[in-house]
Structure formats: C-alpha cells, structure tokens
C-alpha cells in the first residue's frame, strides 16, 4: 500500500532524531570541561569523578530506587489482578474503567495537592517514604492495568480450556499456560511503573519529608537555584546507557530464544 | 453469572481499595477545600462554606493564564498526533520482528531524568545553543535563541508527552486491517480520501485515547512552561502550585484544581465509550 515508503521512513527518522537529540546532547555535555550545557569547551571526566564522590546524590538515588522498586512490585501485582478482573464483561465494568482512567488523565499537580491535603494533613500520614509509596502506586497502577489488559484481552481463552481439558488444575493451567502468555506485558507494565515512580517530580515534591528527598525532587530544588548540575547530566547519561544496554541484551536473548524455539517446534 | 461478577470484583478489589483511599478520597477533599473559607497560615481550611474561591478563580484576571494553558495543551496534543501517528504506524506496520525493540527505543530517552531532558532542550535552544547556531548558518538564526518563546514550551511539552500518544496509537495501528486500504484503492479512492475515510476512522480509538493522555496532563503541567517559557509564563498548574506552596491560599488552589477536574470529566464524557479497550 505504501507507494512512497521513503516519505514515511524520512518522517520516522526525523521523529527518532527529535527523541534522541537532547539525550545525545546530554551525553556530549557530560564530558564537557566547563559547567555550561550549551557551550562545549573541552573534554573532561571531572563530572563523573564528582558524581562518584557525591554522597547526597547517592543517598537520594538509593531512596528513589527503593521507592520505585517497591511501587513497581505493588502496582504490578495488584494491577495484574485487576487486568484479569476486567477480562470478561460484567455489570459495572464500565465504572471500573472510568475509575482506572482517572490517574491517567488527572494532572499531576491536582493529584499532588490533593494527596498533600488528604493523607498528610487530614489522615496524619507523615511526609516521607510511606506517603510517597502510597501516592506512587496510586498513579502507576492504571498504567500497569492498561498494558497488561491489552495482552490479556487479546489472549485465546481456548488455550486455558485446552489445558483444563488435558487435566491441568486451575493453578497449574495458570502457571504453565496463562502466566507465560502474559509475562511480557507484566514485565512491560512493571518497567513502566518503575519508570513513572523513578522520574516523578511534581507529586513527590509535595510529599517528600526531611531526609527522604527523592532524586528528581533533589535535582529540581538544586536546578531552580543555580541550573542543573553537570553531575546530574553525567548520571542521566549513565542511566540511559544502562537501560539501552539492558534492552539490547533483552532483544538478543528474546530473538535467540525465538529462533531456538522455532527449531524445536519444526523438528 | 453472579459467580463471574464476584470473581471479577474480587480481582479488582485491591486496586479499588488503593485508588479509593489514595486517589478518590484526596480528590473529594480538594472539592471540600474549594468551598472553605481561607484560613491564613494554617493548612486546614475551616468553615463556614463559601463560593468565594470560585469567584476569585473565575476572575477575568486569571483568564489569560487559563487560556494560555489550554492553547499549550491543544497545540501539544496536535503536535504529538502529527509526530506520533507516522511513528506508531511505521512500527506497527513495517517494524516486523523489531516491533518491540522499536517501541522500546521510543521509551529509552525517558529513562534519563525528566529535568535533565528539559535542561538539554534549554541548552539546545538558547542563544548560543546548537539549534540557533545551525539555523544561523542558513540565515534563520534569532537573537537570543528560541528560549522563552511559546514555541519552546510546546516543543518541550510535546517531547515530554509523545510516548503517551505513541503507545495507544500503536495498539490501534496494529489492530487495523491494512486490507481495507487496498480495498479503498481498488474502489478508486486516492491517498488523501483513503486516509480520511478509511485509516483515520479505523485508528480513531487510539487517537482518542492518546489525546486524552496528552491533553489534560499537558494543561496542568507547570515545570516545562516554567523552565522553557520563563517566569512570565504562568499556567493553570503553576497557579495551583503557587497557592499550595507559597501563597498558602488552599481554597483558591483547590477551586482551580476542581476546574481542571471538570475539564477531565468533560473530556471523559465527550469520549464516551469509544476507545475504552485501548485505554
């Protein structure tokens, strides 16, 4: 159908350039010898060296990682259950869908001030890790449900019925048939939840307490005073590199397993 | 039938409890706050009930701010659609075995710090930045660069929200039956006519879901306008933020938050049931 596929290809290349330009620029600027982000004056590793020595950054990085991990685990578990709950039609499913779409569309600033007002000032939950965790799960959950649900609803029910016909108990059928089928979506949902929590500035900024500042909030406070520090640029560069490497490894393993799998079945 | 209903609700119960306590209850409290009398210095608003906050929030003085936030949001949604649709279509239709990898490649940049990305744009767009330098070579440069312009804000917002547009669009494009396009060509329709009569209605659920995920959150965002647009660029979000952080007028901030929530409900109602399965 694409009589001129190069037009589409050119547009897609341009969009990818747009997506990667700031990241590439961050990577270049992280090796800059001056503090400036806009003018590159020479090569140096000093920001990486300073990053390695900065305990405050590492303390908040550790807290942010713990929070993102806890939030991702909780929202993935209960979100996956919810995605299975929405699998078949039942009275009230529309209402559940509306409830679940709320965290996706309510602006962060509204959620932030609402949570500050309610569970910090009214319910007496102290600012800090607990408050952050409650909030992060609340705004990540829906993303997990959306991602897992798209996979669950596309799944062939006859596979599980076949397992049951062949004598598998519901638990065994779930573990050996259903779970492997939805696993990619569950992993994607968990990654999404982790990312949302790890990068959240606005909601977290209302809920961080003394000694429990997350990295994005720490960076935001610093940046509004004297611009973003080159150390953070170095840290961002390391994080994107690590993610990209993990992804490449994942793709390689997946394609290797796929080709191994097709060899087995073709035999 | 009853068993199925019970089973579904049991599976949904943990999510319902969590969202009920940590999302719905707080939003209800915001509505309550919005009708409260201003209580200086103390966080807890007190009685008697009043609509004063709404009268202040709807004051014509705030109109340009709301208007600006809405224009930013609509422009961002349009830009995300224009960039996101070719990308989603390409990945879904021509990605082949690399589909998942390409989709992940869209998300990789977002593993860097959000603030670092905004500052990267700041550096690229300012007077001595790369964009202005390159455009200067072809005579399109601008004194002082492109920072602190409306365009810079929309660019930053588009960059930040693009993945939320691409993902639902991708799902819709993947489900779309391409044979319909061939049928349309066979029946004598041209490219433009085919796009508007066959492709667009076919992926409409994704367009609606993506726009929903971009429009309202973009209207409430204040970090991007603040950093790329400068201090003069107050938006809906920044005014709410000011009331809670500095101004300490919780009822006014709450009333504005409720106005944004009304926008959310309006958009949800307008969407109706379309695209429910994509989102």
Automatic annotation (TrEMBL), chain A:
It is a multi-pass membrane protein. PROSITE patterns: ABC_TM1 (PS50928). Gene3D superfamilies: MetI-like. Residues 61-250 form the ABC transmembrane type-1 domain. It comes from the Bacteria. Keywords: Cell membrane, Membrane, Transmembrane, Transmembrane helix, Transport. It is found in: Cell membrane. The chain crosses the membrane at residues 7-28, 63-86, 98-120, 126-148, 177-197, 203-221, 233-256. SUPFAM superfamilies: MetI-like (SSF161098). InterPro entries: Bact_Polyamine_Transport, MetI-like, MetI-like_sf. Belongs to the binding-protein-dependent transport system permease family. CysTW subfamily. PANTHER family: PUTRESCINE TRANSPORT SYSTEM PERMEASE PROTEIN POTI. This is ABC transporter permease. It comes from Lentzea indica.
